[in-house]
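Posting for a labmate who doesn't have an account.
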Amino acid sequence: MARSSSKKPPEAPAEPMPARIEPCVAMLVDKPPKGRDWAFEVKWDGYRLAVHVEPGRVRIITRGGYDWTDRFAPIAAEAQQLGHETMILDGEAVVLDDHGRSDFGLLQRALGRKPSLHDPREILFFAFDLLYLDGRDLRRLPLRERRRLLESIVIAVSAGVIRLSEEVEADGEEFFRIACAHGLEGIVAKRRDKPYHSGRRPDWQKIKCVRRDSFVIVGYEPSTMPGAIGRLLLAARKGEGLAYVGGCGTGWTYQESMKLRELLDEIVTDAPAVALRRRGAVFTRPVLVAEVEYRAWTQDGKLRHPSFKGLRERADEATIFELLDTRLTE
């Protein structure tokens, strides 16, 4: 008589964990979409990050593919305590102001090498997607299923530095109106039924209360005030090079302007990064990036009413605004 086998059926082999996943990027649109297929979230004002939990280590990767684990050590430490051997979280690192709004300037100061009133432990990571979990690539699943798994992991540590970016059950236009009234940067809409695709996709859309993007600093015009800056000269990516998009002369205090000029004076060059002739201008190597808030674009492709909000690093090239032919994108 043959014995019945007590062996369990073989498990499906684990899917290799990607070393890096190019993030899904939301398309900028003028108004929120309609329909029950769309989920809405707050648009966070910080650094887009992927948190890779691997056996024995955690890596934190920027949108541009750089390893910034050391800059976000508290997030990395907490990620190891989430109870899973392998995992990739997609989200945003932010610092919240006194009103609970994400503030890019506060984040920059918390990350800065100079003394700051803001501790790096104030940096929070709001997770909004789960791309890989315990040997399984989740990108082919619809968003609603990825979110269900994400919520089961992150809600348990909601008081820590890793938190869930909440979905809001609301009409998109009403949510957008309320977000703008509360001084938020905007909202994000995502199709619940779609898998995760890298690159800029219509499945994810962002609607901004004001426009805000990153531009390369290519020089400055001195202020009439001693040691300060009158206007920053800004450029966007265009093809393999840069194109001048105008100047920015507001958004800083006199003291901040002096510190910014000190930084720029260390990278002065005789070879401008853009084709621009301007009397009295001081040109700099294109290694610093300005975060700029503005209202619109002029017909000749210049920023309208720009205001300086902080500095980024050129190393994370993916954040810099790009000009495509006659169209403007980011």
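Reply:
Got it, the structure tokens are right above this. The CA atoms of residues 108 and 114 lie 11 Å apart.
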